[in-house]
Amino acid sequence: MLLSQRSLIALVAMLGAFLIPILSSSLRGLTHVLTCEEPTPAPFTMIVPETGPPQVISSQIITRGQEEGLCGGLKVNLRAGASGAETIRMVVEIQNDTDLLWQGTVQLALQNQSKIPVSIGRIPAKESRSDQVEFSLQRGTTQEIQGSLLIGP
User: Fold this and answer.
1) With 0-12 CB in 10 A as exposed, 13-18 as middle and 19+ as buried, what is 117?
2) CA-to-CA distance for 114 and 143, rounded, in angstroms?
3) Contacts of 63 by beta carbon, 8 Å cutoff, 6+ apart
């Protein structure tokens, strides 16, 4: 009996050693494993004045000869606009110009270090998918948002 208990304890300890990396890892709200992570090219600045509607400012630098797309052929299109007195709606679209099926998420990082994953899901070859998210910001504040494309197989 003593030998079988030792064997059982050894088996549990060995299986537990394999579970340590799984239990200590974090997918940061993702539903897929990452194979590529790249920042989107256009940051957004959102201004919510004390009076009046929210304002969104964005710009992107385009350089001749620069490879178009992220992660080997995926294009991210971020659009933003006011949807209320203190609310801004962001539309996130990923276009898959490759011959492969991809699963994607765009992580939006707010200036105050909040990170919001926007899950786009599976994107078949030569197709696009989109999703949207709304932010409620306090009056009299300015917030910068950066995006990152998080892609998995």
Assistant:
1) middle
2) 11
3) none
